[in-house]
Amino acid sequence: MEVLPDDGENGTSMASGRHPIERALVTGATGFLGSALVARLRSEAMEVVGVSRHPPVGDDRFRSLDVRCLTDLEEAMKTVRPSHVFHVAGDRPAQVRSPADLRSSLDLNVAGSGNVVLAAAAVGARVVVVGSAEEYGSAPAPYREDVPEQPSSVYGLSKATATRAVLAAAAMVDCGVTVVRATVGYGPGQPPDMFIAALLRSLLSGQPFGMTSGDQVRDFVYVDDVVEGLVRVAKTREAEGRILNLGLGQSTVVRDAAALAERVVGVTGLIRAGVLPPRPGEPRHYVVDMATTESLLSWRPRVTLAEGLKLTVEWMR
Fold it and tell me: Does domain 8-186+220-250+287-302 match CATH 3.20.20.70?
């Protein structure tokens, strides 16, 4: 895969304004993406405080906090004084299945995200909000950032509403915010109820894997690439006030991904396509256009699906 220059200072991209991360606060810090982001930031010797509703016991680098409580958020921001806030906390698609889940999802994703922006603005922090490409829903793919959202699921609706809420709040309180719409992340540490994780665990144990017909198209992106993209967005001043896509930018038919996983693991005949119905409201063609993100950051994701599956299998073994 061709790789663009790493830094805008030496290239011809738009990424001319740099915004160093001096101190970071990460919400949802013990989740799949949040924990990977915390590890990456700490690997660069940055001062990082992770907040979560369920922090590790005995680790003072993490704090117990629910983003739905504005008072607690404001206190945490005043104590930590972050230069950057990475807002990763929120529902996962597997947790939000039916219209009955909408109220709680709006409470967490919309009210919680708005609270993060308000609290961050009070201490002058820059905010990167992790959104979802599922916000685009039934819009024509590949999704561009300027197409109107057409969410077709409860999860997509709550995340699209959150995006509009945080951008509006940021304008009102003069806070630098970027919403990063990520596609289907996977990799070491992914929750076992997510597709790639469940697939690989089943294949590694020699068990048949039941799935839908698998004719859906997805944009799978390795977790380290998502983390890298978030860090680069945080450091790029021109990203403020924007919505940016973050995925591999490549279409993969789900059944082809399953067949590739079989080859990586070294098994055959375990995929049972068509035994499960499709998830209600899930987009059929789910892939993002990465042109704006690549130009702005002078970077694109580097890990192919084959490479990412091999890395995940090695970790699982």
Answer: no
Residue range 250-264, pLDDT digits in tens? 999 999 999 999 999
Take residue 10 and report the two structure tokens written for it. Answer: 């030496």
Least confident of 8-17, 81-90, 244-253, 265-274: 8-17
Q: At what angle do helices 70-80 and 112-122 cross, to 10 degrees?
A: 40
Helices in the chain by DSSP H: which ranges? 32-43, 70-80, 102-106, 112-122, 154-173, 195-204, 223-235, 254-265, 291-297, 305-316
Tell me the C-alpha to C-alpha distance, in Å, between residue 5 and each of 11, 15, 299: 6, 11, 6
End-to-end CA distance of the chain: 27
Delimit the domains of the chain by residue range: 8-186+220-250+287-302
Q: How crowded is residue 205: how many other Cβ atoms within 10 Å of its Cβ? A: 9
